[in-house]
Structures
1.
Amino acid sequence: KYRRRYSVAARIRMRLIALIGLIAVSFFLAPSRARAEIPPEFLGRPIASIEIEIDADASARRTLTPRELGVPIGAIFDRALLRDTIERLLDTGRWADIQLLYQPVDDGIGLIARLVPRRHVARIDIIGNKKLSDEEIQRTTLFFEDDDFDEARLAQLRGQILHQYQSLGYDDADVKIETRITDTPGAEVVRVLIEEKEPTRIATIIVEGDPLPPALRSKRVLGFKEGDTVDLAHIESSIKEAEIEARERGYLTAKFELARILRDPPKAAVYLKVRLGDRYDILIRGNGPITRDEILDALAPTDDPLSAAVLLAMEQRVIDRFHRSGYP
């Protein structure tokens, strides 16, 4: 049997799908290609039979009648019929892939419509999450109801959630993604099953570079300790606060960095790189409305020795700071 196919694959946004579909029809129906695409002897013959195939799980299939397809038995087969049918199906927004095939039969033309439903989220069920709320998970993954999805997107979703948990110290967390069909073809319930398990905890903190002076050690300047969960955001913010604390105590060029975290769940070793530099006693007087912290920021000391040129540059930066505040 002689079969021809009109097809449009639609796995991107529906607006673009419609555009691609029209281009595909126009291309196939261009005058220079028309006779090559539809043999002349087929044109003008009546539609004698219609088959509709919906590619979905059997329990999710719903019969699409020829009436809903918009092609009645007896309709005249021509290019306009194919074009209009594809446009009509695209306009529903329900189909991810549309194929129209035709073949000669005894009484005219047999039309076959092969349709793949657009897979989209009918509902999202997140189960087992305690450390993270549903809203926090969805805000990070940007996965919401009515979104289109495929297996690659579900794999990405799982990876995003695992990364969220790992950043909080839950290295052994497990995430499974399931889908359940509904009575509407393509509409599926996405179930996110989370098993958080026990978090990874800090077993040791190793300082590389300059050792912390007693004044900072006694103040527990780091903000985290052995036994705490390896919460990456908390560790990084605590290290930044420790750097600020050290500078306020006279270590004006102090630099604290997270060098690495060696994880061996349920334990981890946190390595810090610390550079303190020289300690200064700075007396600030007569600064008026300009705060001490603003003066320190303007001084911006470096590791360079305090030569006359360096001190002069620091002095000029403070003067410029006053000028910017309206003090000539």
Note: The longest strand covers residues 95-105.
2.
Amino acid sequence: IIMTEKRNNRGIISLIVMGVVSFLIAIGLVGFFYFLQTGDNLYKQGNIFGVSPMKDNATTSVKVTGFLSDPIANVDGGTQLYLIEFSRTDNEDYGYTSLEIKEGDKLIDELKAKQDDLLDNPVYVLAKVRKSGADGAVKNYSIEFKDTIRENKAISQLAETEYYVSAHEANTDRLYASVGAGIAVLFGIVFFCSAYATRKREDKAYAELYVAYPELNYSMNTVLENATYVDNQLGIILYKNHLISTFKNFQVYDLTKADRIYHYIYTQKSYGMTVSRTSQLIILTSDTSYRRKKTTLLIKNVGEDTDDLLQPFFYAVSQEFPEVLLGYENKKRPF
């Protein structure tokens, strides 16, 4: 039987795919919230405040054709309400409402700078429609707004008093999208780095074998026929001084450096039921110039019989490496 170099290409490709997906999610979030969902685009699509059916929390475009530079109210949370004139599809079809803006927002400066020219050059503001009395909306908005504009008949007759628009909440959605995109990018970087690290660890493992055993001549062809112990079911090979694990990732360990080795089963449960078992060979060493104190090698878990199936392996280790302690030490936890 000839053994060839085993590469975890499936795992690496999966990590790369997840990295690509993470970056695509980040690009999608940024693209949608910052380039597709804009005031200009929604207006062109017919999603216009005063034209589209009013619905609380709906995102819309507000065609601002008039702006009162002083806020008509300060809202808890650091936002302000400004009286605006909004137009629908035609500048002659207009009305009045409040626009909620975060104090210090650049939109305020933009509207003030264009205040005298808004009728001819309106600003299309991306905003959320909010209904008076709705959860999270300005408290008692309708009553307060009616009181504010009561004396001005020209405004009160054309005012939308049940709904107002919030640029602040639309910007908050964008902020959440930015955070989500940032998290997706971080996940993408982690996935790409994991793929790179996995390949590097495999390369390092093969390099260790080829350096230790020049007779292999950079080939695994003769490993199985010259191995001391082979368990294809669990993915374990003893080749001279090295323990080789071939389950999922290719891992090697020089047992002349080991102090102790034992089997550990990690069990994951859900609602009291076992959903998965993972088997690991834990190797402890005091030679930290070779490896860290505790190294984990994955092996295949085949159920409750896994530990029994490992006994021939432990016997082979005891014969070849009698100085290596076997099993977990209960009285004194090494690490």
Note: The mean pLDDT is 92.
3.
Amino acid sequence: FSEPVWNSDGSLIAHSKDTGMVQILDGNSFEPINEFHSQIGIIQQFVWSPNGHELAILTAAELQVWNIFSGEMLAEFNKVGGNQSWNAEMGVAGWSADGQYFATTVKDLGHAISIWDVSSRQNVSILYSPIISFQQWSSSSRSEMITVEDALYYPTQTIIRDASTGEIVYSLNENYNLVSSSPGDGRYLAGVKNGDAAATIEIWDRALNALEGRVEYPARIETLLWHPSGDMLVAVTVNEVNDVRNYTLAINDVITGERLISKRINEGEIALSFDGDLLAHSGNGLVTVYPLAQMLDIGFELDGLQFAYPGVVFETVHWHPTE
């Protein structure tokens, strides 16, 4: 079973009804408007294209891309070479920002990221490495893939590649636990180095190939997001005291490193609204929405608006695209 997922404008929801059956619901009324059978077994994940018109469907062995309005299957991809398996631990990298490419991770004699050109139905590049500890599409407007790779005989590298060619366009001899590119042109790259009880975020200017800044945290970082403005980094940190894990929401100015917000939160997931004015946090049967813009404006913490769901354990939280 795959969790229901909204498309980019919130008008449609995809979910798996039965084995291989995909149902499309109206995003407002939740009434079914279309359904089709993928015929590829138990669905593990849905990923909408950026324009919200195509739906990628992933099982343990196959990837299909469908136009949900016409019900036409646009592309079908099997595991590379036919004898690998999707790397479930790392998940699926998904669509590039322009919607032209889709990436999956497979395991063979090491790790490989396969990048598919959906329109031409071609596997345009395969990125092989003995160990790929991190992968993510760039959040910029470019079709770039970010990885952290261990080549065994060489230093661990953080690498950015052009999706269409697989060519390296930027690299650092740095072993980061988390990496994120700035929104827009992707000029800046933030990398997290976690220690046992502390962490450092390093911010690189790709254009100048220079370390722009460094922010220290007195706890490990579990989540790192760029604020849509590109001016702030949003992190969730965790430290453990007497077997109790304490979580903190921390927001820092990218340039100065100044801590703008530091607020204790419960364990759970966070998500920024598309304009960055609101932040949602799910955990312990509660969804809390914080007025982030107002908190930043007045310079101190505010309690968020809470929605209680007793007995419910949340696995993820998403913003509707229209908020």
Note: The longest strand covers residues 232-241.
